[in-house]
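queue> pop job 88
queue> type: inverse folding (structure -> sequence)
queue> payload:
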């Protein structure tokens, strides 16, 4: 019989795998779109980077969720919580940097 900790660990590993898969699929789709028509368009490279960035952003969300699940499910220690906090900070920074790259403005700025 599996314990809750083992189930949570397995779920975390599964979601980690999904995150990596999302990033790889995003890379493949963005590359195929660019090779199919993007090279001919004036903004093709920009659209390629945006499509690739979207895949990375979504994959990072999955990876962060997996880390949170594993940290919460295991008996949280101060060291584990600090490591999780650093991981979340780094991934949040990466997500915000990608958002600025994709949209041209930060999520805190208005659309106007």
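queue> result:
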């Amino acid at each position: 019989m599996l314990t809750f900790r083992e189930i949570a660990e397995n779920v975390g590993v599964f979601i980690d795998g999904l995150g990596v898969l999302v990033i790889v699929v995003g890379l493949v789709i963005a590359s195929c779109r660019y090779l199919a028509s993007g090279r001919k368009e004036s903004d093709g490279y920009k659209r390629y980077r945006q499509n690739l960035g979207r895949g990375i952003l979504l994959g990072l969300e999955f990876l962060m969720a997996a880390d949170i699940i594993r940290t919460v499910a295991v008996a949280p220690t101060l060291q584990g919580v600090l490591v999780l906090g650093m991981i979340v900070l780094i991934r949040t920074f990466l997500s915000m940097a990608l958002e600025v790259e994709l949209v041209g403005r930060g999520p805190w700025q208005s659309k106007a």
